[in-house]
Amino acid sequence: MKEGQTLWTRDELILAINLYCKIPFGKMHKSNSEVINLSKLIGRTPSSIALKLGNFASFDPTLKARGIKGASNASKLDATIWNEFYNNWDAALLDSEKLLAEKKYTTILKLNDIRLDDLPKEGLEKERLIKTRVNQSIFRKVVLATYNYQCCITGIANPELLIASHILPWAKDKKNRMNPMNGLAMNALHDKAFDCGLITIDAKTYKLKVSSKLKDKKAPNSVKEIFWAYEEKEISLPDKFLPSKEFLIVHNNRFIT
Description:
single chain, two-stranded antiparallel sheet
């Protein structure tokens, strides 16, 4: 460590990995406004934040598989924090969001624009719904950033039209609800078709498969343009948090051939 530098604290690292999850890999540089904002929040320089993001990138298996090594000076504590997230995304992401809200002197609800006017006034059901909405908001931020705010099938780049799709359904796999490798950025229509098993993404090739139910010869041109045109084409894969082949195999088995 250079003279005058201070060791990163655990809280600082947790906030840094929170940011790592929320910005596209290609935007992890010192001039990014989100990097600058975090630097002001924790009293670090934008350059040091960018370097720390590079340290976390060195642990990312997706980047390793692509031959991208990331920074080479990661610490033991960096590795510890990474493993805490990688092995328990649900708890780690939520805790990091709570810490971020605390540092910003706000609440996790305001930080994620969670509305409460349509919820029960009190009780366990209200608490459950609040937690679900917060988790879904965080998951959406992470997944859309992972895919650079573009639909992985069509390339549509309007965030308001995009869904953070779960490969393993939210209701059926509680352990991977917040796992970014259980996420795909899709437009709302393809998300619905994916959820119904009318399309899937081949676990071996990452190519789109379309169900015979959508291949009726009498199908309108809109169906052909929206579904047929993308069949057997590889989806746009992210630079980090590659969709899990294990999870895709489960979805492939639910696919309606």
